[in-house]
Amino acid sequence: MSELTFEQSLQQLEQIVSQLERGDVPLEEALSAFQQGMVLSKQCKEQLENAEKTLAKMMTDENEEVPFEEASNE
User: Of 45, 22, 46, nearest to 33 (Cα)?
Assistant: First the structure.
């Protein structure tokens, strides 16, 4: 699976959940969809964590990255 954007991964995950909630999916297909959903869920979580780490940093006047909390206390 190629790297999807967060929005693409979330949309696919929502489609899988909707499909599984209907309950009319054969067992083998449901298991496959569930496994794909777990992979998508992990990708979304990692993308959110990376975004959070990026947003938690600020650049100082000297172009040094510092945690946001330290920068806001200066």
Answer: 22
How far apart are alpha carbons 14 and 9 in whole angstroms? 9
Q: What is the pairing mode between strands 65-67 and 57-59?
A: antiparallel
The rounded distance, in Å, linking the Cα atoms of 59 and 13 is 35
Structure tokens at 22: 């209907």
Q: How far apart are CA 18 and CA 20, in angstroms?
A: 6
- How far apart are alpha carbons 40 and 16 in whole angstroms? 10
pTM for this prediction: 0.70
pLDDT of residue 54: 81
- Calculate the average pLDDT of the chain: 85
